[in-house]
Amino acid sequence: MAITDSIARLSANVIGILYTRLELISVEVEEELTRFSSYLLWSLVALFCAGIAVLLLILLLIASFWDSYRLTVLLSLLGIFSGTAIGLGWWLKTTLSNRPRLLADTLAELRKDVSALQGHQADNRDANKTGDQ
Predict the structure, then answer these.
(1) Where are the domains of the chain?
(2) What pLDDT was estimated at residue 41?
(3) CA dist 63 to 57, 69, 72, 73, Å?
């Protein structure tokens, strides 16, 4: 009966570990979705406001220099907005490539569990060898 009790306890421990890790995964996914939704919403609001402001600024500048420097103003604005778009695209690419992996904390905990179980198994083998001698 001792072996069946050991197997039952081991099964219960494994199921408990899996349950805890699945809970951790679900919490991380929920947090990531909430964060992403918030980023998306505020990004869209900021883009809308910035777009309206930029259009009004362009209209103001063109109207102000219509008679004298309209081509210079238009070319300057084109250069400024093109440079900004390129700079922001580079920044976004860098930021996205350096972001942390999804479920990084969960994977780290699973690695700890595996190494702890492997260490526990090695300890049991050492104890069995010592007991046999």
Answers:
(1) 2-113
(2) 92
(3) 10, 10, 13, 10
pLDDT digits (tens, 9 = 90+) for 13-44: 888 888 888 888 888 888 989 989 999 999 99
The runs of H, that is alpha helices, within the chain are: 2-64, 70-97, 104-132
Instruction: State both tokens at 124.
Output: 């049991």
Count how many residues are written for the chain: 133
- What pTM does this model have? 0.45
CB 104 within 8 A of CB 32: no
Check if the beta carbon of residue 110 is closer than 8 Å to that of residue 21.
yes
Question: Is the distance from CB of 32 to CB of 101 less than 8 angstroms?
Answer: no
- Cβ atoms 73, 65 nearer than 8 A: yes
Structure letter (DSSP) for residue 90:
H
CA 23 to chain CA centroid, nearest Å: 18
Question: Residue 113 corresponds to which amino acid?
Answer: D
Instruction: Quote the pLDDT of residue 54.
Output: 86
